[in-house]
Hints:
It contains four helices and nine strands, in the order ββββααβββββαα. By secondary structure, it is an alpha+beta fold. The protein starts with 17 loop residues before the first strand and ends in a 14-residue tail after the last helix. Residues about 1-30 and about 185-195 have low confidence and may be disordered.
Amino acid sequence: VLPGGRNLIGGKVRAWNTCGSGVGSPILRLPLRRPMIKPDGSLKMLQFNCRIGGSETMPIMLCLKSDLVNALIDGRLDKTEADWDRRVALVVVLAAHNYPETPRKGDVILGLPRPPDDAQVFHSGTALRDGQVVTAGGRVLYVSALGDTVKSAQKCAYEIADDIRFDGIQFRRDIGHRAIRRSPATLCSCAPSPTA
């Protein structure tokens, strides 16, 4: 989330077919930039990454309206334009007991909702055991939400996160606070600008 509507994904989504397993399995990778907002409001680039699966990716995936998976499978990824939801996207990571040192596994997860259309709960460190969803890693769930403002996306994400329960659950309560403090009505977007 960037104040002033600055976006981090420029131009078309570029995707690469790479061979992660060594047997020709295509893997979809999106170029992602991971900035830090300095106290003066300027950006410092911390990381440039190309993987799908990290917490920084989940809000972007929620904004993506295009069907890149089928385009990849059908071999037409190079001809596919990305279509983006232009609302604010925010993610809250729900972590396991004792994360990041030695996350506990096997805690039963309760309260998994059927999220509204403008939110999604992405599973990361979960497993299915005896018909129940349980913790199976440090970063357990990514609660991602869209909103017209940072505040509304934050409210939606935290309402969903507060309904999810498992022993030792932990998550930050300050996601998006800097953007809200700077400009509560700022319409930020995870989507590329039309001129990019």
